[in-house]
């Protein structure tokens, strides 16, 4: 009786895994759709990429300045009167 329960449980688990894989295969985009998505990503636009680089450089500079000071800059801007 215990072996029958184990067999049925194993078949159930394999069935669920197979069903999940089948659903994933149906839902996942095809090769053409993947290429279209990659083409439309913001990183594909050179102007947008340059803006992102500038913003990242500014953020790194702010973090560097914050690391070099002992002040709590999170409270310093806008909270003081």
TrEMBL record:
Could you tell me the Gene Ontology terms of the biological process aspect for this record? Answer: ATP biosynthetic process; mitochondrial respiratory chain complex III assembly
Does this UniProt record's set of keywords contain Transmembrane helix? Answer: yes
How is this protein positioned relative to the membrane?
Single-pass membrane protein
Q: Does the keyword Cytoplasm apply?
A: no
Location in or out of the cell: Mitochondrion inner membrane
Alphabetical keyword list: ATP synthesis, Membrane, Mitochondrion, Mitochondrion inner membrane, Transmembrane, Transmembrane helix
Recorded superkingdom: Eukaryota
**Which GO cellular component terms, listed alphabetically, does the Swiss-Prot or TrEMBL entry include?**
mitochondrial inner membrane
What the protein does comes down to: Required for the assembly of the ubiquinol-cytochrome c reductase complex (mitochondrial respiratory chain complex III or cytochrome b-c1 complex), mediating cytochrome b recruitment and probably stabilization within the complex. Thereby, plays an important role in ATP production by mitochondria. Cardiolipin-binding protein, it may also control the cardiolipin composition of mitochondria membranes and their morphology.
Q: Which family does it belong to?
A: Belongs to the UQCC3 family.
This chain belongs to the protein called Ubiquinol-cytochrome-c reductase complex assembly factor 3
